[in-house]
Amino acid sequence: MERDNQSIEPACIRQRFTRALNSYDRHAVAQQRISAEAAKILSLHLQPFGRCLEIGCGTGGFTRHLQRMLPNADWVLNDLCGESLAIAATHCNHSPQSIIGDAENTELGIGYDLIASTSAFQWFHDPLNFIKKLAGMQTKGGVLLFSTFSPGNLQEVKEAAGKGLSYPSGKQWEEWLAPFYNIEVCREEAIRLTFGSPLEVLRHLKYTGVTATHNGQWTRGMQEDFVRRYKQQFSTDNNQVTLTYRPLYLLAKRL
């Protein structure tokens, strides 16, 4: 099932994240918390993992957690950006195989006991077909662990800007996974950050590559309208503004 409104191309995503490469780790507060929580979930479902794949590894925020838990596994890392892959690989205990490319349309190998990913699945155009692809890559009883985002993610930006991504619900992901996996974890969380102004929110998104959620350039008038609406709707009592991430965590075992 394709998501017609999910029109962001991999080349655009790659360009935005490449531009944010030097600022990402300093500003990706929510993503770091998500990686830590995903690692905690995995730690409760550990089993012998020989061959492992991380999809959308970025600069290695989740990679570091995985390496600490599974130091002797045979790792394959994937990301759109070769520069990010090179950084993530430095966090590995042994030299991993690196695969550059859009995970939906790139050959990633087979025979995986673990496939893991954080904050990447929301970019995929056809989640159901991607789940089918992953199922074909995994061993029986293999673990699929990923985080994505749920409806209401970055809702402040979407309402103030009048546009933004839509996100499948946990129930929808469960329906996609059910023919291939036994679902053991499906849980949502809210991570609320505060900023001094709506412009700081925009800078935060730019520094973490998330500006790929909007195509095209903003005029000065559009930006002024955005700032006004954001302040009106999402100001706190101490004159800050909020930005809410809504991660969704899923862990499933291959049937």
Automatic annotation (TrEMBL):
The record's function comment reads:
Converts the free carboxyl group of a malonyl-thioester to its methyl ester by transfer of a methyl group from S-adenosyl-L-methionine (SAM). It allows to synthesize pimeloyl-ACP via the fatty acid synthetic pathway.
HAMAP family in the cross-refs? BioC (MF_00835)
Give a GO biological-process term. Answer: biotin biosynthetic process
**Is the keyword tRNA processing in the record?**
no
Q: Tell me its family.
A: Belongs to the methyltransferase superfamily.
Sorted keywords for this record are: Biotin biosynthesis, Methyltransferase, S-adenosyl-L-methionine, Transferase
* Superkingdom field: Bacteria
Catalysed reactions listed for this entry: malonyl-[ACP] + S-adenosyl-L-methionine = malonyl-[ACP] methyl ester + S-adenosyl-L-homocysteine
Q: In which pathway does it act?
A: Cofactor biosynthesis; biotin biosynthesis
Leading EC class: transferase
- What Pfam families would the database entry show? Methyltransf_23
The lineage is: Bacteria, Pseudomonadati, Bacteroidota, Bacteroidia, Bacteroidales
Q: Return the protein name.
A: Malonyl-[acyl-carrier protein] O-methyltransferase
Which EC number(s) does the record attach to this protein? Answer: 2.1.1.197
Single GO term (MF): malonyl-CoA methyltransferase activity
Work out whether the entry's keyword set contains Mitochondrion. no
Q: Which InterPro entries match?
A: BioC (IPR011814), SAM-dependent_MTases_sf (IPR029063)
Q: Which organism is it from?
A: Parabacteroides chinchillae
